[in-house]
Design a protein that fits this description.
By secondary structure, the chain is an alpha+beta fold. It has helices at residues 2-37, 70-75, 104-114, 151-165, 174-177, 195-201, 240-248, 283-290, 302-307, 318-355, 364-367, and strands spanning 49-59, 80-88, 93-100, 120-121, 127-131, 134-139, 142-147, 190-192, 217-225, 228-236, 255-258, 261-270, 273-279, 312-313, 316-317. The strands form three sheets. Strands 1-2-3-7-6-5-4 form a seven-stranded antiparallel beta sheet, with helices on both faces. A six-stranded antiparallel beta sheet has the order 8-9-10-13-12-11, sandwiched between helices. Strand 9 and strand 10 (228-236) form a beta hairpin. The radius of gyration is 37 Å and the shape is elongated. 25% of the residues are buried.
Length: 377
């Protein structure tokens, strides 16, 4: 009986291990996903933070859903939204919001729309805006807002959340990079990707129709020069042809009176971008602002693009030149090999005829066709 019991136990052990392994495989992906999706500070990481008062998470935000700025987040393609409130020191409440948007351009757009201070280059995040009791930042496809704490605590929490998100490659949208720098009021810059955000925060130039769509993006900012001010709307179109058609169709009023000031409207096209400047600027000032707006095409060798090398010799890319040289060397090697192979066969036939006169290859019936027969006549 004892031997039977040992046998049963020995047979049950592999079965138990197999069931345990199967159970772990079913639960581990969910646990891993949970860790990846949680960017909030760890428990007791900050002594100023107390107990969690509320915790909320939403997928695919399609309306305001009771979120401050929810309409803007929904338009930017908010795939996941999480908000957590903490009891903070002094009896206050601190909230942390993390939204995952469709792309880095969307997160930067939301940052410029919902911030109440100028956007600066991070860290924390890649771009951030800080105001009393509030810090917002954008990092990759994620937008974060921290409210209800002093500036020092907001920054330390933002650094913690940014580190949990991890490094993300991102840069300014191309249209924002092309905004003329002369006279720009950086605190006023806003980047629009949809009609809802433009209706809420945009300024429609008089006599012109601007509606951001999926293929149409707009940057607006205030400008000032020598006591004159105005608003620049930089519109990015998908192609040069569409931009040209829009530019040719501009028919708004060139000048109009507003009180004691004369409001003038100027426009310029540079590639697929059209700039509309409206304000009290004189023509010389408008030319100074719009003069820096240019568009240049960059043409590169496809071979260089794939190999990330731009070195040249005599104007020929090194990669392409190396391919030509290797091809010539290969042809030369094949020629040398053919010569040696032919000499080897000839020497072999001579030796074979000398030491084996009646061999199969030198029989008269085989060599009759190729003999010149010079001595027969």
């Amino acid at each position: 009986m004892r031997r039977q019991s040992r046998i049963i136990r020995a047979g049950a052990l592999p079965l138990t291990l197999a069931l345990a392994l199967l159970s772990w495989n079913r639960t581990s992906p969910a646990q891993t996903e949970f860790v990846r999706g949680n960017f909030f500070p760890a428990e007791m990481e900050f002594k100023e933070l107390g107990a969690v008062r509320s915790d909320r998470a939403l997928d695919n935000v399609v309306s305001s859903d009771g979120i401050e700025g929810g309409t803007i987040l929904a338009e930017a393609g908010c795939r996941h939204y999480a908000r957590r409130e903490y009891e903070a020191s002094g009896g206050s409440v601190l909230s942390i919001e993390v939204a995952t948007l469709k792309d880095p351009k969307a997160s930067y757009s939301v940052l410029t729309l919902l911030r109440s201070s100028p956007v600066e280059k991070g860290p924390p995040g890649q771009f951030f805006a800080v105001a009393p009791g509030e810090l917002l930042f954008a990092q990759g496809t994620r937008w974060v807002r921290i409210k209800g704490a002093k500036a020092d605590l907001c920054r330390r929490i933002a650094v913690s959340v940014s580190n949990r998100i991890g490094p993300r490659e991102s840069s300014l949208p191309l249209l924002v990079k092309r905004v003329p720098p002369d006279g720009l009021e950086a605190a006023s810059l806003r980047y629009f990707l949809g009609p809802e955000s433009f209706r809420a925060y945009g300024e429609q130039p008089r006599g012109f129709q601007l509606i951001p769509t999926r293929d149409l993006e707009i940057v607006q900012a205030r400008y000032e020069d020598a006591g004159r001010s105005g608003t620049l709307s930089l519109v990015g179109f998908p192609t040069n042809q569409v931009a040209q058609e829009y530019f040719d169709g501009l028919s708004g009023p060139g000048t109009r009176a507003r009180g004691t000031s004369t409001i003038r409207t100027y426009a310029k096209r540079a590639g697929p971008q059209v700039a509309i400047l409206e304000g009290t600027f004189e023509p010389e000032q408008a030319d100074k602002i719009l003069g820096s707006l240019e568009f240049q095409y960059s043409i590169r060798w496809i071979y260089d693009k794939n190999n990330r090398s731009s070195a040249t010799v005599w104007g020929v890319p090194v990669g392409l030149l190396g391919t030509v040289v290797r091809s010539l060397v290969l042809v030369a090697l094949l020629c040398v090999a053919s010569i040696f192979l032919g000499l080897g066969i000839a020497v072999f036939r001579i030796l074979l005829r000398t030491y084996a006169p009646g061999n199969l290859l030198d029989r008269p019936e085989r060599t009759e066709v190729i003999r010149l027969k010079l001595d027969e006549n």
